[in-house]
Amino acid sequence: MAAYHGGGEQAEQGSSMGIRRGALPLPRSGSIRVRVTLTVAGLSVLLAGVIAAGLCLLIRHRVETEIFNETRRVASEWIGSMRRDHIPPPAPTARVPLVQLTDSQGRVVLANPVAGEQPMSTVRPTSDDRFQDVTECSGDRCVVLTAARVPSLQAAEIWQGEPHYVYAGTDQPPALRGHRLELLVGASGAVLAALWTWTTWRAAGRILRPITAIGQRMSEITAHDLSLRVPQPPGRDEIARLARTANQTLDRLESAVTQQRHFAAVVSHELKSPLAGLRAGLEEALLYPEVDAREAIAGALPVTDRLQQIIDELLAFARLRNTPCVSEPVDLGALVRAEVAARGGEVPVHARTESGLWVLGSRVQLASIVTNLLVNAQRHATSKVDVTAEPVGAQALVTVLDDGAGVAEEDRERVFEPFVRLDAGRHLDPGGSGLGLALCRAIAVAHEGSLRIEESPRGARFVLRLPLLTDVSPGQEAASGSTAV
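Structure tokens predicted for histidine kinase (485 residues):
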């Protein structure tokens, strides 16, 4: 694998656009605003109807109760003042202007002038229930009155036992006549329901306006222009969080598309050069008979080998991005020891590992990272390569350190980009594809870890960090041990 190679650059995130001013389209019948408003309107009408009915009953009962209390008082006081030798004239009040005394035949015995000569009611209370509250209507006039029976002892003393009745009443208040009270309260309830509905319509429109603006902006975003962002309202409510999440998703999408475009351009460029050379060699063999065909084919084989290498690594790179790896507990310390033991070459590799470095991942993919790092380190090292594997907090730390020239600080991220090859890498490995370190970092990220070049006194220090697996069976732990190679 080529040393210090990498791939595509990330584009800057597109700037957010402000909310466009202007009239919003009217909501359709299936919109949330219409459904919410209709629901609230129905509930408002139902609630207003219940409140209106209850209020009508309460008002009517309260008014009639006050009137009947007063009519009973007037009737009781007049009956209490009657004597055998003297029946005083009726004593009406401003609230009870109608007072009459009738006999058992319904004839008016005594009444105040306003009450008239006709009996106000035909109700005859019994001796067991001396008071009855009624409303008598005749034509357009209704009278609210109390019919009171004179006590039997008092009637026997005054009229030799003939029953007599006292009627005390007043004209029905205008609000209680007919259905005026119901109409008035019903109209008030309708106005209240309409006010609730209108308030809900306005409030729903105000709440949903940012969502409408978000929808309009999302419809303007295309694959050719991913720089637009949805308007983000202030606050921390659900709509604000939705807008922030949408913008974060658009940021990631724009970055991914930018990387994909750049990656496709770089791949095209990398494949174009060897393909052009291969075509030129083959065309030369066809056009010029003096060119040896076997030599032309032999010269084309290295080019096809390089193309095959690039395509294989591209397939591995794409498979890693699109297909989740099969995870299993892996003893990272044992894996590093095995890879170091398998290495040969002129530059020796010294390893120091610790036991218990269990991580969750693909053994094959993790081994490819260690192998690639060891190959790069041996290629650039002067005399030795040091490898360590140890736990640091909740992470497993693998360090590969060579004593070569190292990597300049400004190039420490570029080497992980696909197809990026520094001058030293091109010189030491002319046939490399430039995908090795990019593939290593992609594997590390897929395992929720990281791969970076960190500071070192001399040479390049590659550091792989992976999360430790805490839930490991005792048998697996016993199989791992601390070893130096």
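Residues 1-27, 478-485 have pLDDT under 50 and may be disordered.
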